[in-house]
Amino acid sequence: MKIINFIIIFLSFLATNSFAQISNTDSIEIAKYLEIEYKMWDSICFVQTKIAKEEISNGQLTFVIPKGMVEMYESDTELDSILSKYNIKTMSQGIFCTAPSDKQFCYGDLMNQEIERKFGKDFITEKRIEAEKAYVKKNINKIFPSSDCDRNHSIYPFTKNLDDFLEQYDKDYFKTFIYPPSYIHRKEDDLYSWTEVEFILTVNGELKKLKVHSSFKQPYNKKFAKEFNERALNFVKKIKWIPNKKSGIAVNSKESVIFMYDHENWKR
């Protein structure tokens, strides 16, 4: 399968470059090229399918992990270890936007369908969840990006999930925010000014490595940077933040909150 993977990568590269070279020619030449390309992928799919059928008939199962234009995980090593207990191997295969979607994953589709038939449709999903938990426990001291953490959890004590948190914290901030009398407000077509606070939120709920920065589109407003920075920092420090979670496990995480000034949602 390593040879097949190499051919797929090579053809995807060839397709991208070849198409670029003929992009200025007429539509007939492009149509001819696409027909030839599709035939090449058709041949690859035929070979992949044949190999998959032979291995399945010999009791050899391989779960193929797509890479590229799909959701990806850091727990592939853990998944490989878990699936090995069921005599299932794993391998990765790139997914390319330049290749026909129905032709480049023929081996993986057949293998993954056979695994689902034999072990159940939720088998891989359940094992991936198990692998994710194992990865987190193995890397419990790692600082995870907030974007990698659970969406059904909120670090903000006044909301229950990530979506509510992203809508609520800034509204709470601006409830008591008063602009300086001489502050030049944003006009309708102007870019926004903002203050961002970045911090590490530990598994114990502590804040570390706080950083604050303000950006003002009106040069005159830069005189308020220190004041706005202090206000944002004080707001963040007063909140009793809840440790973030990944796969349901409390983790250290890198967080940031942004306060955008003169945003229509916050006008009182």
Automatic annotation (TrEMBL):
<protein>
    <recommendedName>
        <fullName>TonB C-terminal domain-containing protein</fullName>
    </recommendedName>
</protein>
<feature type="signal peptide">
    <location>
        <begin position="1"/>
        <end position="20"/>
    </location>
</feature>
<keyword id="KW-0732">Signal</keyword>
